[in-house]
Amino acid sequence: MRDPDLPNPHLLPRVHLEQMKQAAQRVLDYTAGMSFTDFAADGRTQDAVCYNLNQLGVIAATMHARVREEIGGLDWRRILDLPEIVSRLHFGIQDEILWDLIQRTLPYWLVVLEETLEQQPR
Fold first, then answer.
1. Cα Rg for the chain, rounded, in angstroms?
2. How far apart are CA 45 and CA 69, in angstroms?
3. What is the pLDDT of residues 37-84, one digit of tens each?
4. What do you get for the CA distance between the two ends of the chain, in Å?
């Protein structure tokens, strides 16, 4: 049994950040080398991307607000809104918005997550 005085390791900020990083990296891996036309025509990749973007937002929502405030460089409001955004944009509606997020925003978020993880205690 876990010592009740020790924090649950599943609730530690590092765990959340690692999971967010993994979701972001998967999106970038799934779309690497694709053009917008390829992405718009590939329902499986769109589903995988939407799932991981949703996960990114859900994981961020489980983090304590204080922890999110301590981590600068991320647009937390936009990240927290990802599940709603993804659900509205699914099935080919406004693929351009998803593609822009994948191409311009997600790589930046990934860098911030990696830098933040380097500073986190293990």
1. 15
2. 32
3. 999 999 899 999 999 999 999 999 998 888 888 888 899 999 999 999
4. 21
Question: What is d(CA 48, CA 44) in angstroms, rounded to the nearest whole number?
Answer: 6
Residue with tokens 């986190």: 120
Contact between 17 and 111 (Cβ < 8 Å): no
DSSP per-residue codes, 85-117: HHHHH-TTTTHHHHHHIIIIIHHHHHHHHHHHH
Distance, CA of 7 to CA of 29 (rounded, Å):
33
- List the structure tokens of 92: 């080919």
**Tokens coding 91:** 């099935």
Q: How far is CA 28 from CA 1, 96, 119, in A?
A: 38, 16, 23
Rounded to whole angstroms, the Cα distance separating 49 from 72 reads 25
Rounded to two decimals, the pTM is: 0.85
The C-alpha torsion from 81 through 70 and 24 to 118, rounded to 10°, is 180
